Amino acid sequence: MNSLTIGLISAGCIFGGVLLGLLLRSLLPDHHLRDDSKDTVKLGAGMLATLVALVLGLLIGSAKSSFDTMNAGITQSGAKIILLDRLLATYGPETKAVREQLRRSVAAGIEMVWPEEKTGLPGLTAFERANGMEVVQAKLRELTPATDAQRQLLAQAQQISGELLQARWLLIEQAQNALPLPFLVVLLFWLTMLYASFGLFAPGNATVITVLLICAVSVSAAIFLIFELNRPLSGMIKVSSAPMLKALEHLGQ
Length: 253
Hints:
single chain
């Protein structure tokens, strides 16, 4: 289920709470809606609102932190790719095939994660199936250094290629983190009950209903953002491709 669908379902559930509250208002006897009852409901709604605000704030902060970590990992990988290409260029013309393979791998990775046209295959799935960096490592193992300087350069290149491969799998594993469905269900239940308490004592005019609808959409937008930021390689809000594009621009120079 994608983030937009979850956001729309959340908006429907939350605004459904408002309608439920308005319906209960018309069905309950008058003595259930007196000031003493209203004060008790407001007390419970205030506690629930505090709890929901705390949970949403923590979830947004955690999701943003995951997004920033993914973005930082891609930036570091871009810098290491440029460094690897420079080391291979310094090694000598024997590394021409390795550098070409490195460039093809980076270009293919960019196309997988940030495709210009939709292919129907999730970018993360295509990225996971790619084996370009393994091919680069295999070609590095085929090199036979003739001098101490070449041996040192080859060792550094192999270390960086290993770090790039590790970073790739780390990004893939980090992208597997998802908000558990029971947690989402409980959060939506809290929000639905909270908005039901709003509708219970709200006048049923168009202005109030419109305001509560806007509030419901705003809260569901926060849930949408949480799920989007937790999917930085495959959602509508993706990490920037600029570091990789810049690395591709420098390869082969």
